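Budget justification aside, the reviewers requested a transparent look at the raw inputs and outputs of the sequence design task funded under Objective 1. We therefore reproduce one unedited record. The lines immediately below are the structure tokens for a 278-residue chain.
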């Protein structure tokens, strides 16, 4: 079709992988499946499109799935149901978004002081691991700030480079990743924290917060105090359901508390995960 093969076949020696292959005769395996929107949505998101979305739904949808559903073009939708669904899933409700932002800042607040402390006692490997976690937390907050669903790990860095803020952040985060010592790592992350605070203030969702780092208590470790940002954001949540969830520890969404590929990719877990928000 337009010069492209439309026959799908199994890739040799790669179970579960399919490739397109030219064939001159016989029926083509297009791997096109006919279904209904309701069935597809249930199979893909474990969501009944006839039911309203609540906060627990949003917090148990993996962002990679929401991105896959909403990022592509719709070429034909006479009935309009698909367009309606995609409009519904375009972005998180405002207070759910605030909760996710708060949870992202909380993650930074919980570990930003651990990176230099690990390095200070001679554990550069442990410090580097924590530093990488913090780099990812900064990147995830950038996706939230610019209102884009983050993809899964293979495309995470590529999609990050498409964000408006990537040009500023990339050198800082790359320096933090490559830093051979905890002090150099701290310097790079401190610059990233400052710019992240600047982007937060630009959202105007809270009072203006400090865009500078300072010591962790009386110890010589520079932090942005992510917990201050988290609590300032939580204070702006008004939706009763989200406010109730935010009154407990800020565990965030499935993407913020789980790295499991199986949990993120299999929506059948949602019925269990919803219990975290009861």
């Amino acid at each position: 079709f337009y010069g492209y093969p439309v026959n799908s076949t199994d890739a040799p020696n790669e179970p579960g992988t399919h490739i397109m292959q030219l064939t001159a005769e016989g029926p083509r395996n297009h791997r096109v499946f006919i279904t209904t929107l309701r069935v597809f949505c249930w199979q893909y998101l474990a969501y009944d499109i006839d039911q309203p979305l609540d906060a627990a739904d949003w917090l148990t949808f993996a962002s990679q799935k929401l991105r896959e559903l909403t990022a592509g073009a719709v070429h034909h939708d006479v009935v309009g149901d698909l367009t309606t669904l995609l409009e519904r899933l375009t972005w998180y409700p405002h207070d759910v978004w605030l909760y996710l932002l708060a949870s992202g800042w909380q993650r930074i607040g919980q570990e930003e002081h651990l990176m230099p402390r690990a390095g200070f006692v001679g554990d550069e490997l442990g410090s580097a691991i924590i530093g990488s976690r913090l780099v990812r937390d900064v990147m995830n907050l950038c996706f939230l700030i610019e209102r884009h669903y983050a993809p899964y790990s293979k495309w995470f860095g590529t999609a990050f480079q498409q964000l408006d803020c990537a040009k500023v952040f990339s050198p800082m985060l790359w320096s933090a990743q490559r830093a051979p010592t905890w002090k150099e790592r701290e310097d790079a992350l401190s610059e990233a924290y400052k710019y992240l605070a600047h982007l937060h203030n630009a959202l105007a969702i809270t009072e203006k917060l400090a865009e500078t780092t300072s010591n962790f208590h009386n110890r010589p470790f520079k932090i942005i105090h992510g917990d201050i940002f988290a609590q300032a954001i939580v204070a702006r949540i008004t939706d009763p359901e989200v406010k109730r969830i935010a009154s407990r520890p800020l565990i965030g969404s499935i993407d913020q508390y789980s790295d499991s590929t199986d949990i993120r990719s299999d929506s059948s877990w949602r019925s269990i995960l919803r219990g975290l928000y009861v």
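The CA atoms of residues 104 and 248 lie 15 Å apart. The first helix runs from residue 37 to 45. Computational costs for records of this kind are itemized in the attached budget.
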